[in-house]
Amino acid sequence: MKYFTSEEMNPSEKTLNIIRQIAYTYRTFTLNGKIHNYCLN
Question: How far apart are CA 13 and CA 3, in angstroms?
Fold first, then answer.
């Protein structure tokens, strides 16, 4: 079985910044027991 080490599959800083930007602008809220999502631009 192959295990991943910290040296393998490291995303670039550019990729991490894109993920951070999406995570920062992505929001969810609950209305009448249903989860809705929206994105702030």
Answer: 23
The mean pLDDT value of the chain amounts to 78
Is residue 17 within a helix (H) or strand (E), and if so which, with residue range?
A: helix 13-25
Q: Which residue has the tokens 């894109």?
A: 18
What is the largest distance, in Å, between two alpha-carbon atoms of the chain? 46
Do the Cβ atoms of 21 and 15 come closer than 8 Å?
A: no
Q: How high is the pLDDT of residue 1?
A: 54
DSSP run (H or E) holding 35? strand 34-39
Global model pTM greater than 0.85: no
Run of H or E residues at 28: strand 26-31
